[in-house]
Amino acid sequence: MHHHLSNIYFQKARELIPGGVNSPVRACKSVGCDPIFVRKGEGCYLYDVDGNRYIDYVCSWGPMIVGHAHPEVNAAVAEALASGTSFGVPTWREVALAQKIVELVPSIEQVRLVSSGTEATMSAVRLARGYTGRKKILKFDGCYHGHSDSFLVKAGSGLATLGIPGSPGVPEEVVSNTLAVPFNDLKALKTVLDREGDEIAAIIVEPIPANMGVVPPREDFLPKLREWTEEKGIVLIFDEVITGFRLAPGGAQEYFQVMPDLTCLGKIIGGGLPVGAYGGKQEIMEKIAPVGPVYQAGTLSGNPLATAAGLATLDVVSRPGFYEVLEEKAEALENGLVDLTKRHGVICCLQRMGSMMTTFFGQRGPVIDFEAALKSDTDLYARFFRNMLEEGVYLAPSQFEAGFISLAHGWDVIEETLKDAESAFKSLG
Ligand code: KE4
Questions:
Q1: Is the C-beta atom of 242 inside 6 A of ligand 1?
Q2: Torsion angle of C-alpha atoms 225, 229, 235, 240, degrees rounded to 10
Q3: 267 is catalytic
Q4: From the candidates 9, 45, 54, 144, which is the catalytic residue?
Q5: Does one domain contain both 409 and 265?
Q6: Contact, 253 vs 263, CB < 8 A?
Q7: Residue 266 beta carbon below 6 angstroms from any ligand 1 atom
Q8: CATH number at residue 192
Q9: Residue 348 sits in which domain range?
């Protein structure tokens, strides 16, 4: 397959846009190739500008759980579009989407819609600081919560360390209140909480980290996190931007039956259009303007087209059997891939939760935290990525991301993927 037109677009894009992309991970730098440019998506397929077709396991990094250009989603957006695109005045769809989220996400009593996951997490942390009057926050190495300054800290080394900037442009003062400890490390967490737990406003966590690759929590990790934050008066924030409506209608908190104080959502609730949300206990949410003093705002928050796409998507995922079928297909793909790696002597560790999974190359596993994930053979992953692209399968262009399955991935597509994967494994050499 050739990528002539993609290459022409990429060349032009690099003149006009830093790195030729509007989000760094799309640049495919870590997998040693130039990005394809997509002409359209349909169901589980992407079609690039050169006419190549790919089975898509990125699903726009999670949102497209019902598949690309789902007829009900498209119809809902078209209907909203006919009445205008934005008003800056409350609309009925915002109420309907808020209602759906409150109904489906167990711990959410009130919710505020925003336009991205970053806005959701940034606002939730500000709210927790305003609610507790405390300054410090704690995150876990390898978890990603969007690109607002407080979260861009370098991974902690072993024990908890005060954050040091993880990016130029982030002042030390900003991250000096951000603590970071290894995920799944209750000992390190306990040490920090004993030392300064009563100065911490919030602990924010991806209940199942997907941004270092999929790393399942130890069985006692989330329950202990809940217990200890309760004891210390710390606001527990679940960043469910990925796991929300991915793992179950009620996300990871329903799956594990651990209830946070605040939840951040994004991706799936916008059905591919820009929607983020944060919500939780009414007692906390009431601190947000205009009811309370903690300020947060957004011109396009609750946008009518985005809420239309989100509502149609949540309608589809709420139907009986949706998650069961997704689970069966994901399990079949997992079993098939594991079998192939054994048959072809490829050392890797596949970790899956529901319809999200990561194959850590060069690892026998389990991969329990960021330090372990970093030991992956990223060159081998890059070669597998390029081989699969050539076979017509589009994987996450980074070892440290999750792959996703959608409703539109039929059993024939799972079979086709396994055939392509066998060829890709064979030509790893
Ligand atoms: P956005 O601001 O990109 O909508 O959401 C930020 C965010 C927050 N929390 C979690 C758990 C997330 O995974 C994300 C964004 N995820 C990345 C990929 N894993 C988005 C892809 C990109 O940055 O282009």
A1: yes
A2: 10
A3: yes
A4: 144
A5: no
A6: yes
A7: yes
A8: 3.40.640.10
A9: 4-69+320-426
Question: Is 9 a residue of the active site?
Answer: no
Q: Which helix (H) or strand (E) holds 339?
A: helix 322-343
pLDDT digits (tens, 9 = 90+) for 269-288: 999 999 999 999 999 999 99
Q: Whose CA is nearest to atom 20 of ligand 1?
A: 61
Q: Is 363 in the pocket of ligand 1 (CB under 6 A)?
A: no
Does residue 301 share a domain with residue 152? yes
Which ligand 1 atom lies nearest to the CA of residue 121? Answer: 8
**47 and 79 share one domain:** no
Q: What is the pLDDT of residues 353-379, one digit of tens each?
A: 999 999 999 999 999 999 999 999 999
- Which portions of the chain are predicted below pLDDT 50? 156-161
CATH of the domain at 422: 3.90.1150.10
CB-based contact 341:389 (threshold 8 Å) = no
pLDDT tens for 51-82 read 999 999 999 999 999 999 999 999 999 999 99
Residue nearest to atom 15 of ligand 1 (CA): 146
Q: Which atom of ligand 1 is nearest to the CA of 206?
A: 11
Q: Count CB-CB contacts under 10 A for residue 289.
A: 12
Query: At residue 204, what are phi and psi to the nearest 5 degrees?
Result: -115, 135
Listing DSSP states for 67-84 in one string gives -BT-HHHHHHHHHHHTT-
Catalytic, out of 136, 267, 394, 420: 267
| 22 ligand 1 Cβ < 6 A | no
Shared-domain flag, residues 217 and 333:
no
Task: Name the domain count of the chain.
Answer: 2
Question: Degrees (nearest 5) of the Cα angle 103, 108, 112?
Answer: 100
pLDDT of res. 160: 46
